[in-house]
Amino acid sequence: MNKKEVIQALETIAVYMEIKGENTFKTSAYRKAAQALEQDERSLAEIENPASLSGIGKGTAAVIQELRDTGQAGVLETLKADIPEGLIPLLDLQGLGGRKVAKLYQELQITDAASLKQACESGHVRELSGFGAKTEEKILAALEDAGSRPERLPVAFMLETAEMLEEAIRGLTGIKRWARAGSLRRMEETVKDLDYILSVENTDAVRTELQELPHVSAVIADGASKVSLELALSYPVQVDFRLTDDDAFATTLHHFTGSKDHNVQIRQIAKSRGERVSEYGIENLESKEVTSFSSEEAFFHYLGLYYIPPEARRGADETITYQQPYETVERSDIKGDLHMHTTWSDGALSVEEMAEEVRSRGHEWMAVTDHSKFLQVAHGLDEERILRQIEEIRRVNEKYDDFTVLAGIEMDIRPDGTLDIEDEVLSQLDVVIASIHSSFSQSREDIMMRLDAALQHPSVNIIAHPTGRLIGRREGYDADVQTLLEKAAETGTALELNANPNRLDLSAAWLRKAVETNTVISINTDAHTPKMLDHMEIGTASAKKALLQKEQILNTRNIDDLRAFLEGKKERTER
Ligand code: DGT
Ligand code: CA
Ligand code: CA
Ligand code: ZN
What we know:
- Residues 1-314 form the DNA-directed DNA polymerase X domain.
- This is DNA-directed DNA polymerase.
- One of its GO terms (biological process) is DNA repair.
- It contains 22 helices and 17 strands.
- Helices cover 42% and strands 15% of the residues.
- Strand 6 (226-232) and strand 7 form a beta hairpin.
- By secondary structure, it is α/β, with parallel strands linked by helices.
- The longest helix has 18 residues, at 3-20.
- Bound molecules: 2'-deoxyguanosine-5'-triphosphate (DGT), calcium ion (2 copies) and zinc ion (ZN).
- Residues 182, 193, 195, 240 line the site of one calcium ion (CA).
């Protein structure tokens, strides 16, 4: 386990103990230990003896070591076994936390969503001290929300589901080739159901095998060309498998990749040539002859088009763009990542460990951009700690001659429009990211005033997550994105394409506008853990959807060109 995971486990232990009714002395020992770890700038590997930290006693130190070395802890496992399973999801309900759930369990013997609902409806919950009629109402509303599946789920959730499923698909026999299709292949922000195309020889055998996949809770359809299943996960998820012979694989894949609007355009192109496209191939309407294709690429070529990446099949202008050779951006064009966190704020690894992780992904440069002091929950850095961190970053950077570690900060733009860090310190950093993490409900005017303060500042290079949304969960703040795009271009500031699949702002539609305004885009993972560095793949897919080209994307530059961009803003403002 890395530091972030250990801190989470310690907090979970505290909550579970609270639910069980253990005394506050015990629970607060775990909370204190979590805090002590959080406050320390070193990663877990670097803290040899956790008991040496103030706030960590012998007992909790042993638990930390156990978690670090084995990924598990005896106390936590025992607690999990003791607590009714149904209570755990209640902890995530809006308005409920450890203390409230503990009370519900201990005083009303509530053990799951059903018993909670019943207690609310019969008015028992409002009688508990610290609860009231309003709380009761809110709990009922939250229970309702949690029970129903939204029609479309965030791509982050569906990607995880798909990866789990594909692990199993790879183990199936009798499949010649297979591919993702539908909205997930197109990397839409939200996805309704999963689609796969399978090239099979013996349909019957595969049909049976599919129904034995893990988590299958219902068979919705079971035919010779289509098997639809329902998986029971934290939400029910439908998966459509199209079974085809190998000759029709490419056209079936194209057909069921969509989008619907893209397919309409393709059909029109064929029609104008006296042909008809179907999932089985392209039919000449006169001779009735059907041509099949070995790949989607061959299919597009036949229609006079270059290969259109699935992400770009929006039914916008892609069938015009791809009449000529056209290059968007590929993962292999990406040379670095400018937004990530370390144990100095709320990240999982130290500067040095993070550098190793980024370098092992084939990158040439990176920037460490921890939070600034306004973000107290993330243990943000003040001026003094920034200066110390710069020294640390320079030390790590010295180790490499093929890799550059830049010193940066993710600085808060405070609610009143002031910037969180003094100019004198900002000017010593290589990269400054500015972002809004507070007062999201301000008027558009106030939000734009805040963003403008950052745009106009000579040291600010990037505005991070420029809308602040969380897909499926939170709308974000009210920014005038068009103006933001224009002003960013004017001032030599880049806007972030946040690669985290829960965020993905800017959206594809706005990125497409960025082509017109000629705004530089920085694809940033905003990684807090090493695994999150892999979100670069998702960010790149998002850029592809908008048909962005290499030149517009900061990450495709080599270190010298990157530095030229970063320093360009200072020079421009000094003129
Ligand atoms: P969603 O709503 O996130 O599942 O989006 P898609 O695009 O995956 O939609 P889906 O699963 O209904 O269908 C997959 C693709 O199949 C869709 O993009 C277009 C294509 N398609 C071709 N013919 C049909 C049809 O008759 N019905 C539907 N629903 N899709 C079709
Ligand atoms: Ca679908
Ligand atoms: Ca489908
Ligand atoms: Zn960040």
